[in-house]
Amino acid sequence: MDERFGLARHVRLPGPLRLDGGGVLAPVEIAYETYGTLDSDGGNAVLICHALTGDQHVASAHPVTGKAGWWTRMVGEGRPIDPARHFVVCANVLGGCMGSSGPASVDPATGRPYAMHFPVLTVRDMVRAQAMLLDHLGIGVLRAVVGGSMGGMQALSWAATFPDRLRACVVIASAARHSAQNIAFHEVGRQAVMADPKWQAGDYYDTEPPAAGLAVARMAAHITYLSEAGLTEKFGRRLQAREAKSFGFDADFQVESYLRHQGISFVDRFDANSYLYITRAMDYFDLAEEHGGRLANAFRPSRARFCLVSFDTDWLYPTAESRAIVHALNAAGAPVSFVELSSPFGHDAFLLESPELNRVVDGFLRAGE
């Protein structure tokens, strides 16, 4: 594979990585991809942080599904994050299921998968693991950290945890903490997984995974990624095309069929225990609480420039969440730009074709180059 356009990598770092919950990981496995060439001074590195159901395959074909990378609209030749200008790094988060240490990894103490014995994680733990990877790659200071949704949480945590290691921070469709509603939706998904008889308290790696429970969890979560207007425009109350109408519990409505497809396709590439761990880490995330209860305190040591983007139909992380972060950055004296973009696609807008988003990110990154 041409290293300029994507190289899949895996590293086993000795650790130890001490976690917020008191656990320790050693060794630490990290699967990641790089695109482009690192400058001699290491000054062109851009770290991309993925969302809950994403992975390191940001701009290359997924090895399980064969689909294009999840952010090819943002990363690639002629795109805002361009391997011709940037050395791009994207790592599967700690707790993930695409090669980084997680519940499916082998516990060196037992020789079996950790399952639910894997230590509890936080977003800050994920960021510390990424910092270990950058140390391994010889990257001291990042030109930028960029992320949407949970990736935005990681970007914020980078600015707070390693204020001297990044020059710019791009946070898209994210929040500094989860609302009660966010936590409630995640709990529904977790309960769906754990109610599946095949879950077996997480010890299913030698048998069949809890596919039905994980599919329902994905269906419930996917609703939060969309908007009512978008669903209505795309599906309305249209029925599936059938020769003879029948009533019952088949997927009569097109929106039902769509959600079922989302659930079924998700279980082919994701681990149920990882879903439990990562959603819990997102729910624990509260950047203000980590810094004495004041969000501005999280940003006072940082010298980075910040760019915040929200979408007007995103009800998972509404614009008010981004504004709260902007106010905290203003209070901390940090340079910040903010824009709310219009889109009918809800939270998922940051993953879809958006010329306006590309212009914002491209302009912000070029301003610091």
From TrEMBL:
<dbReference type="Pfam" id="PF00561">
    <property type="entry name" value="Abhydrolase_1"/>
</dbReference>
<feature type="active site">
    <location>
        <position position="347"/>
    </location>
</feature>
<comment type="pathway">
    <text>Amino-acid biosynthesis; L-methionine biosynthesis via de novo pathway; O-acetyl-L-homoserine from L-homoserine: step 1/1.</text>
</comment>
<feature type="binding site">
    <location>
        <position position="348"/>
    </location>
    <ligand>
        <name>substrate</name>
    </ligand>
</feature>
<feature type="active site">
    <location>
        <position position="314"/>
    </location>
</feature>
<dbReference type="GO" id="GO:0005737">
    <property type="term" value="C:cytoplasm"/>
</dbReference>
<feature type="binding site">
    <location>
        <position position="218"/>
    </location>
    <ligand>
        <name>substrate</name>
    </ligand>
</feature>
<keyword id="KW-0963">Cytoplasm</keyword>
<keyword id="KW-0808">Transferase</keyword>
<protein>
    <recommendedName>
        <fullName>Homoserine O-acetyltransferase</fullName>
        <ecNumber>2.3.1.31</ecNumber>
    </recommendedName>
</protein>
<dbReference type="InterPro" id="IPR029058">
    <property type="entry name" value="AB_hydrolase_fold"/>
</dbReference>
<feature type="active site" description="Nucleophile">
    <location>
        <position position="149"/>
    </location>
</feature>
<dbReference type="InterPro" id="IPR000073">
    <property type="entry name" value="AB_hydrolase_1"/>
</dbReference>
<dbReference type="InterPro" id="IPR008220">
    <property type="entry name" value="HAT_MetX-like"/>
</dbReference>
<dbReference type="GO" id="GO:0004414">
    <property type="term" value="F:homoserine O-acetyltransferase activity"/>
</dbReference>
<comment type="similarity">
    <text>Belongs to the AB hydrolase superfamily. MetX family.</text>
</comment>
<keyword id="KW-0486">Methionine biosynthesis</keyword>
<dbReference type="GO" id="GO:0009086">
    <property type="term" value="P:methionine biosynthetic process"/>
</dbReference>
<comment type="subunit">
    <text>Homodimer.</text>
</comment>
<dbReference type="GO" id="GO:0009092">
    <property type="term" value="P:homoserine metabolic process"/>
</dbReference>
<comment type="function">
    <text>Transfers an acetyl group from acetyl-CoA to L-homoserine, forming acetyl-L-homoserine.</text>
</comment>
<keyword id="KW-0028">Amino-acid biosynthesis</keyword>
<keyword id="KW-0012">Acyltransferase</keyword>
<feature type="domain" description="AB hydrolase-1">
    <location>
        <begin position="44"/>
        <end position="352"/>
    </location>
</feature>
